Request: fold
Amino acid sequence: MSKELNKLENYLLFDEQLPACLSDGTSVFKSECPPDKKFKSENLFEFRRGRGDFHASVVAALLALIFLAFFWTQTGWDARKLPDNLSNYIGYQFGITEIEGRAKRLGTILKQSWFVPMLCLMVLVPAALFNLKNSWKVRRWRLRYQQPTIARFEYEKYLSALEFVAYFVLYTLAVPILGYLLATLCLGVYLTWRLGYRTLKWLIIGLVASFAIVLLFRTVLQIKTPNSIWLYDLLPSAQRAFMLTYF
Reply:
């Protein structure tokens, strides 16, 4: 055994590449993975800025500014109808002041199409800009102390998530062709296999779970599906009506 280890050392550059235990029983392997810690509920709300935080903050700020730019033309702000005395009007709407001896409950201004988007932008835009400012400070600190700032790992994770978006798009396109039942069964079994559960046991579990979803949402809750399904149209009229009603 010792001769084989000595021969192996000639082909390895670092000691860390040796087997976990030498012939004398001493260990040369040291894991870089931190030991598992018991999960605590307060850790759920921990916030830590990573390498890709600045890039995500830039995207969030740009989206907030785009929403602000389109607010004036897409929410009905141009066609708003407000009285000349706006202060009395707001007080009147919120029941603070009375006009003509009676107070009106919340009404006109709250029902206008631009009011709720305006409230959202009043929170979204300052929050996005404030987050961008703090993210830039962290990025400057990383650059100053030569910390890594490349966010390739984060980009790969975001792009990899688009794979499952594509699966959902294909699923919605398959429902008018194969029907809700067959399309859901195919998607459920494939996603089970795609996530690494590739034994016969797990594939059967995925099939049964998908069928239970069909029974719940289509048979019991009667969630609407397309009235014209290519596969069901090939069936006789009685079977077609049954499949369109329950599956």
